Amino acid sequence: MKIKSINPYTEEVNWTYDSFSLGECRARIENSRAAFLVWSLMPVEERAKHFTRVSSVLRQNTEIYAEIITKEMGKPIRQSRHEIEKCAQLCDYYAENAARLLKDEIVDTGAEKSYVTFEPLGIIFGIMPWNFPFWQVFRFAVPAMCAGNVCVIKHASNVPKSALEIEKVFIEAGFPENVFSSLLIDSKTAMQIIKEELVDGVSLTGSIGAGSEIGELAGGLIKPLVLELGGSDPFIVLEDADIEKAAQAAVRSRFLNAGQSCIAAKRLIVVEDIVVDFIKAFERRVQELKIGDPMDEETDIGPIAKKEFIDSLDRVLRDAKKKGAKPHIYGEKPERGFFFNPVIIPAASIDMEVCNVEVFGPIAPIITVEDENEAVEIANSTIYGLAAKLWSQDLERAERLAKRIKCGSISINGMIKSDPRLPFGGVKKSGVGRELSQYGFREFVNIKTVVVNK
């Protein structure tokens, strides 16, 4: 089977690769198993030094990697550069903190000595998405490998060059061979790898459907599992919010990466006292967005990653129109490329599909509510619980309301950003487990109790 990388702006083929057979995967994973025996015994301080070198490789080659991202999935080049820098910062964090995070924890139990120690599990299999093709892989792999595991990944089929280039990053940084390995495979082969118990843990970022299927399979085999399954994040604006700042953040949060982000502001929930002023401020900033060639330094919104994704966005928009929506569409559509122009749906209703599913594209529904209680009720009304944003100048009130919103993380008067110092993940059907920080670091370790008696 051929795996093609298609440029969503030019609509031309970037690169073509042969997919790996199951036999090739078995052989590569066997090599990973051998690499684990060496890598896991390396002192954590020595492993950490490798990640300092990774951050250097990333920064030295930022333009190369950023261009690959942009060519493969259409992200504006400025945003692609930022993604690479974010990966470098992640490596810096774990290089500096791995030894502390893996340090034995002494517990006084009355015995001669009692402590908790953290040991790597083995081969961790990452099934990764295309929307942040470098960041998502690094977010999964760096903590897992720093803890002493080795990683193999199945990347999304539309970003094979990114997958192979990431593998080269680790080799160039001096990692032993097979500590990190990219497999160019389809979903069927990925499932078979799990079925054959070739790996010791699984991490998936993707849809609820994929998460349910992988979760059932891995759970049946009693494999450690982390699932990050997206969201329909509420962006709540209360009557005492700074409207201009909230509108500016809402535009960035909804339209970054053409709206193709799991933590994008997918439902704008605004108190009726200020909704007119908020919409005016929001529209004014949307009109300033530049749509076009993602390699252009001035571009804010590039194409959607794959042509077929446009059909699903059109379907969501048709559903909203049938239910009374009068969408506002902004900008001129470029003559070529898989573009979907920014859309605002004022007076969106909660029975619309756009307010209930994860919409991966630049559509912004605005839901008007009477007060904070209705805002919280609607925020919690979907099956998702990944992240949320809340705007109010009364910080005590905002923190009180934050406790009522069912999500994995919430930002008050700001945007949600995954940060290596903080755990990332969701509740309800947005996922299981956490990535990043000490909590994500320990998802794929054996938390072992040791009690010593005389």
UniProtKB/TrEMBL annotation:
Keywords: NAD, NADP, Oxidoreductase. Gene3D superfamilies: Aldehyde Dehydrogenase, Chain A, domain 1, Aldehyde Dehydrogenase, Chain A, domain 2. Belongs to the aldehyde dehydrogenase family. Homotetramer. Residues 2-450 form the Aldehyde dehydrogenase domain. It holds the Pfam family Aldedh. InterPro entries: Ald_DH/histidinol_DH, Ald_DH_C, Ald_DH_CS_CYS, Ald_DH_N, Aldehyde_DH_dom, ALDH_GabD1-like, GABD/Sad-like. It comes from the Archaea. SUPFAM superfamilies: ALDH-like. Signal peptide: none annotated. This is NAD-dependent succinate-semialdehyde dehydrogenase. GO terms for molecular function: aldehyde dehydrogenase [NAD(P)+] activity; succinate-semialdehyde dehydrogenase (NAD+) activity.
